[in-house]
Write a structure and sequence with these properties.
Strand 8 and strand 9 form a beta hairpin. Helix 2 crosses helix 11. About 35% of the residues are buried. By secondary structure, the chain is of the alpha+beta class. The strands form 4 sheets. Strands 7-12-8-9-10-11 form a 6-stranded antiparallel β-sheet.
Amino acid sequence: MPRKKTFKVAILWRGDAEARQAATPQNNRFYRIFEELAAVGIDAEPAVYDEAFAEEVREQLLSADGVLVWVDPIHQGKTRAILDPLLRDVASRGPWVSAHPDVILKMGVKEVLYRTKHLGWGCDTHLYRTTAEFGAEFSRRLQSSGPRVIKQNRGNGGQGVWKVEHIATHTGAAETVRVLHAQRASIPEDLPLQEFMARCEPYFAWGGTIIDQPFQPRLPDGMIRCYMGTDKVVGFGHQLIKALIPPPPEGPDSPAAQPGPRIMHGAAAAPFQALRAKMETEWTPQMIEVLGIDRQSLPIIWDADFLYGPQTASGEDSYVLCEINVSSCFAIPDQAPAGIARLALNRMGMQE
């Protein structure tokens, strides 16, 4: 009887040359994924990446059957401008890549909030493609509909996400806004609206667009991170976040200003079954149709971040999508690594 093929997967994350030299399946934060891949018979190896040795990484990836990627859009000033073309090239030569850069550009950018705003997870979302559009429309919208949240198209860790609130001014005075950056340790700042909008102009060069959503008043109730393995929920994380909430009088570095821990739950957790049903039976199928993504191209692991929206007349919660994470979805629930391994094995088996 012929021996069953052993598949090889490269797990790619960002690091320097020393980290690449020292990396083993056991000495990094992805060790549980390495363990579960091994448990289903997959040979997994670290693939630490940096632009300085990109060609070396390319050759390594071409020797694998598949690549699992965990690299943020922005990290200490570095972007994926070199990595994404490299991954496209690798994928075109045979190995599957999750998440593929082309899928990231559909799912893992803030523009998805605009393109899917008509789904049940959407809200009053607008998109600006030019500084002229931003200048012509944002002030009017801010004055007529209350505080807004501005988001650059690509980013992570709260970079380029701002709460913006109109401040009443005297007749003839420059329009003034109060802004709060979503990055940790930020404090509110009052400044002329035109000055803030000029600050946002670089976002058009980097991400191509700016997204504009209403501020969600139930933000203090926390954020629900819905973890997905392709099109099925593999777990949840609930966290009392502090981004876009003004710090207490003790200051932005005080204990009271820090976010709470993310409490992980399995897919069957009772408080989130309504959200699970929506994600699996309605919103994810609708999303892939709107975005033109086939099911097999969905990332093996991704997540959708939800804030609580208004309660219904009967007291049930609604949910508002605030972000989809595809580029680097981690940390993950305890149950997720086994799901990732099964999905990876299935994906490679389909390619035989």
